[in-house]
Request: fold
Amino acid sequence: MQQEVLSILGLLHDVSNNYQGASLVLNQIIDGVYGQSLEEIKPLLIALQQTNDRGVSLIQSKRTAFFELNPVTEEQFDMLSFLQNNYSRFKPIAQYHSLNLHYETQSSYKHGTQVRGDSISIDRMLCNLVTNAIKYTLAGDIFLRLLNQEDDLIIEIEDTGCGIAAEQLSNIFIPFWRAPQSRLSDKAGRGIGLYIAWMVAYAHGLSMRVDSVAKQGTKFTIIFPYKDDGIYGVDGRMLPKSQRLQDALPI
Ligand SMILES: Nc1ncnc2c1ncn2[C@@H]1O[C@H](COP(=O)(O)OP(=O)(O)OP(=O)(O)O)[C@@H](O)[C@H]1O
Ligand SMILES: [Mg+2]
Reply:
């Protein structure tokens, strides 16, 4: 029961964040921030259309159990263009907050950039991490990176924000947990985003690493392990679903 409630709250959380971002960009367009001509605003409109489609697919997927990796939804996709889309979607949102979002890639990748997994869930994981990076950075830069680490493919989301104190790091994936300074700040939140991100990583068998220095910034690293068939990520050798669920709920 608790899992179902968390899943529904998580879905509402992500759908609402999706449309809040869209409405913020729409207001910027209306205010003429990006210019007046169709040519100038077209890239933004395309990003908005993708955001809208994403919201629809989140709702239509009826993901009450968002952490379940249904084999039907396992697919292969190109992480390089997937992140490029995310970058285009978040760039204006970062800009609205006077932050500079960068997308850094390598000129070539050892085994390409094809990933296997549930793209909607992986998108939710990334969006929550990028949203946090924007939310907890007052001024400065945010980096989204796609890199090789030996044979593996890794995504980094690094910010130059408030950071997380070392003694608080072990709490961040617990549902509803928020750092005391976040609770006191004007940043609204329910402490759900990182739980979603962690669950998605866990369901896919991905490792997630956090490095953070208080008052300096935070870096999340997600590792997509290289598989023998040339594709990164899930290989069908995950733990049985029930086992995963049990292990994934440290609460
Ligand atoms: N990039 C970050 N920099 C600094 N602190 C962070 C960062 N990401 C998360 N945190 C801390 O971890 C807490 C939990 O994050 P989480 O995303 O789960 O919740 P939230 O952002 O507070 O709210 P919600 O995601 O539900 O809108 C945050 O409240 C914040 O204290
Ligand atoms: Mg959050």
In short: The longest helix spans residues 2-30. Residues 13, 128, 132-133, 135-136, 159, 161-164, 172, 177-179, 182, 189-195, 218 surround adenosine-5'-triphosphate (ligand 1) (CB under 6 Å). Confidence is low (pLDDT under 50) at residues 236-251.
